[in-house]
Recover the amino acids of this structure.
């Protein structure tokens, strides 16, 4: 008897088992279940609604509809458990965790089981799996969702290489951002990001992007690229971090004020203007996507002083566009204005 071959009886003449070759994956009773999803990455922005397409069919086509169970989940990016998003059986749907109340199944067409996510958040980007379960058979497909945003390096106020992985994650969140993925850092490098200090990424690796090779940044002999220290211990090792801020729903602006402010006065001034002091991620997003351009340094929520330059010019920093930083000045100094953020 052939090992692994399911038997369906015995030949009475030869007295040997009759075996049926195993069916290919996804085939049952001569019918194949097929799940179709787009191969290209889907792009959207924070606060938007997006639909992740998923359709299924049978080969050959079935005349009579069959009950199926649908499961959507988000794949892990950094060793964390996979996240259940939505499960549906017939008209009954259940969503989970941070997705509760923000997702539902679109079934506008026959055998469509697309996932709609409302009010996208920075942490929603990643790979999603759509699984269709028909009895004992199941098939699935993957789709990747990417948010439009900007990657920026971030340091602790006390200087470089002060953050464990978990502290780095919290630091990005405090700046209205998330820890960047390698794909996001690589895309930022392709767009010109050049930074010599190594920083944590979402997978707990430590890397840094170099567009212009130089001696202090790995040496002159290495080609430009994203340099890697590899995975690091999440609690023992300390580095900077690369954060990812998604495009804004609100507005960042420099508050016109008759005099310079201390950090506490800056916070109060924004509140009096029906706004709040801007975070670093918000300033970077406004510079990247709204073209915010101002040559005046202003306080931000983390106690740093920065200013965004979309159109470089004399007496306004370097000749490259970017967000300039004065580090973390004494919060009692009255040498800066303030950047405020007003949600929409």
């Amino acid at each position: 008897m052939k090992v692994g071959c399911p038997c369906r009886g015995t030949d009475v003449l030869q007295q040997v088992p009759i075996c049926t070759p195993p069916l290919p994956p996804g085939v049952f009773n001569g019918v194949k279940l097929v799940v179709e999803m787009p191969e290209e990455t889907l792009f959207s922005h924070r606060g938007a609604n997006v639909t992740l397409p998923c359709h299924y069919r049978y080969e050959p086509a079935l005349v009579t509809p069959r009950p199926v169970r649908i499961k959507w989940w988000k794949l892990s990016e950094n060793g964390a458990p996979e996240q259940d998003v939505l499960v549906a059986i017939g008209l009954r749907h259940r969503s989970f965790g941070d997705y509760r109340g923000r997702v539902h199944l679109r079934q506008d067409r026959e055998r469509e089981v697309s996932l709609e996510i409302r009010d996208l958040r920075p942490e929603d980007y990643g790979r999603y799996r759509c699984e269709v379960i028909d009895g004992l058979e199941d098939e699935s497909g993957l789709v990747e969702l990417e948010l439009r945003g900007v990657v920026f390096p971030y340091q602790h106020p006390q200087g470089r290489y002060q953050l464990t992985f978990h502290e780095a994650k919290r630091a990005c969140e405090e700046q209205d951002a998330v820890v960047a993925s390698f794909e996001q850092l690589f895309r930022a490098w392709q767009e010109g990001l050049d930074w010599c200090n190594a920083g944590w990424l979402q997978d707990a690796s430590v890397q840094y992007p170099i567009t212009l090779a130089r001696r202090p940044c790995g040496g002159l002999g290495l080609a430009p690229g994203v340099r890697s220290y590899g995975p690091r211990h999440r609690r023992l090792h300390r580095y900077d971090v690369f954060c990812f801020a998604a495009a804004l729903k609100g507005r960042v602006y420099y508050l016109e004020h008759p005099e310079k402010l201390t950090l506490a006065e800056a916070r109060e001034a924004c509140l009096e203007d029906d706004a709040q002091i801007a975070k670093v991620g918000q300033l970077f997003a406004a510079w990247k996507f709204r073209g915010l351009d101002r040559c005046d340094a202003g306080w931000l929520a983390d106690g740093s002083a920065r200013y965004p330059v979309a159109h470089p010019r004399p007496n306004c920093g370097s000749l490259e566009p970017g967000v300039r930083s004065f580090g973390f000045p004494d919060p009692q100094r009255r040498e800066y204005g303030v950047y405020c953020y007003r949600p929409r």
Summary: The two ends are 71 Å apart (CA to CA).
